[in-house]
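In this supplementary section we document a worked example of the pipeline. Step one takes a protein sequence of length 135 as its only input; no multiple sequence alignment statistics are reported here. Step two produces a three-dimensional model, which step three serialises into structure tokens for compact storage. The input and output of this example are shown verbatim.
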Amino acid sequence: MPELLHGTGVVAGRASGPALVCTAPVSGWGGIDPRTGTIVESRHPQHGSSVAGTVLVLPGAKGSSGWSGQFHLAKLQGTAPCAIVFTRMNSKLALGLVVLHVPAVTGLDTTGTIRTGDLVEVDGTAGTLLVRRKG
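The serialised model returned by step three reads:
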């Protein structure tokens, strides 16, 4: 049975896709290869996973302001996430969201609620997520 979660919409719009749950913040500069969408940050727990076409679920962003440039390149390459769900806003993530312009929701504790592979429908306008468990 699908689970409806309520948060705060940050970027309006709707998108759905499989969740990629990151257990640690991702670095904007050098954390993701924009050509492939792969997390290349060597010590990241989800190293080697691709964000391409996913609902990227993460606690936040870290590092420099590279988020905007790297995610802009990923968007041009077709390797960007289709939506982003996050816990903590900071200036790096805010700038990345403006450039990426995909539906985004915050204000949720997603620990254990969303698992990698779950199908997630994001409504950034309403600030809601509809989560359907994988298999």
